[in-house]
Amino acid sequence: MKFKLNTISMVTAACLASTGQLAQATEVFRLEGFGAVSRAMGGTAVAFNVGAAGMMTNPATLSLMAPGSELHLGLDLITTDINVENQSTGESVSSGTHSSNRGPYLAPEAAYTHRNGDLAYGIGAFAQGGLGTEYGSSSFLSRAAGGLNTGLENSSRLLVLNIPFAASYQVNEKLAVGASVDAMWQGLNLDLLLGAGQVGALIGAGRVNGSLLPVLGGLPDMRGAHFSLTKNKPLASGVESWGFGGRIGLTYKMSNDTMVGLDYAMESQMKDMDGRATLTAIDGIAGQIPLAGNIRLRNFQMPAKLDFGLSHRFNDRWMMAVDVSQVFWEHAMKDINVGFVADGGGTLDILLPQNYKDQTILALGVAYQIGNWTLRGGARLATQALRSETLFAVIPATPRKHVSAGFSYAFSKESSLDVAYSHAFEETMGNPGGTSNSADPIQTTHSQNNVTIGYTHRF
């Protein structure tokens, strides 16, 4: 038992240390599935055995695992294709790897599970999601009002890590119930330029206040304001926080071949993210006036989620799964609430509107087993959670249509390799401009590819 606990500690620590470059999320800030088995089948995971990654969706599926212990190690590699076009001038800029702060996007995962009789339990460390963009400092996104080039960065990187402690109990031959409590960490890097028109729109809507507001308003030729809360390193974030989450779930065997599952994940309970930042006032006459201070992002939460799933095995080789999910973004993501306190005195509070919509997701998956091989495929379709009028170029979390494929190969009863590939089809969204979130009319396009690899050892 001492060996097992030491293994858990080392695996969790390794995963925590490796999440410096996290995957661009594919459904707003959430990955579209956890583990290669689920990912290859369109992210379905509610009503069949997806291994240790089941603790991230429906912990009751841990009761579907074989008796004994399992150690799971995995890695996501995601490449993105993100472009923003200025609809007025025709200029465009692509997100790239302009610094050590971004890509390639890597999301490691690790977990240990054990099943003994009717009880199964596990601990893991999984990347829940995030986002990442890097537009550099010379595009139209770095121009303040009046076409003033600032040379300031526009970029983002959000990381969300879950460390679930999960357990499942087989109540009878048909019903299993499970639950998890998750320690959660999140960190954000952000460089964002707001033009004078955007600042004015926020002030007019009553979304800016604080003692620095009249100071900024008193500048002779105010052109904009820039926030920088970024640590330009592979690890570390400008602001970060810890908190917790959790979920409950069940599986019910309707027959030997058909199973249904249900789970609910609570909205996260994260502390405010805080750290150091620089607020730069941009003036056409006085130039750039940087103010260093402390910054806080208040009540930034991951949403609650409800899943219903069905799986059916047609014969010894073929099975299928269907999941329907509702993600409650509307409650979790109304505003980005920023509070800044300058070192020399003065405060500035800003509410950046987001007003996300709740999201409905349909996921389908099939699997075919032949010998030591299991072949998988899937698809996933989600409604759009973002609104065009509140779209930020640095937060283009718009993909909602995916296809996936993958396989598993069993080297022996003790070890197996799982591989999945998923493609997010290009999604286009425009902001009409003249809003608090975009000075110019812009159109973003975003697609991406994701490869997931997992290795499981049973003992």
Distance between the termini: 12 Å
Shape descriptor: elongated
| CATH uppermost class | Mainly Beta
Average predicted local confidence, pLDDT: 90
Instruction: Specify the number of helices.
Output: 5
Topology order in helix (H) and strand (E) letters: HHEEEEEEEEHEHEEEEEEEEHEEEEEEE
How many separate domains make up the residues? 1
Q: What structural category arises from helix and sheet content?
A: mainly beta
Helix amount: under 10%
Please tell me how large the radius of gyration is: 23 Å
What is the fourth-level CATH superfamily?
A: Outer membrane protein transport protein (OMPP1/FadL/TodX)
CATH architecture: Beta Barrel
* CATH topology group: Porin
Number of beta strands: 24
Summarize the structure.
With 459 residues, the chain is mainly β.
Describe the structure.
The protein is mainly beta and 459 residues long. It has a single domain (2-458), classed as Outer membrane protein transport protein (OMPP1/FadL/TodX) (Porin), CATH 2.40.160.60. Helix content is 8%, strand content 54%. The protein contains five helices and 24 strands. The strands form two sheets. The chain has a 22-stranded antiparallel sheet that branches. A two-stranded antiparallel ribbon has the order 5-6. The protein is elongated. Residues 1-25 have low confidence and may be disordered.
Based on the model shown, name its key terms.
single chain; 459 residues; mainly beta; Porin; 22-stranded antiparallel sheet; two-stranded antiparallel ribbon; 5 helices; 24 strands; elongated
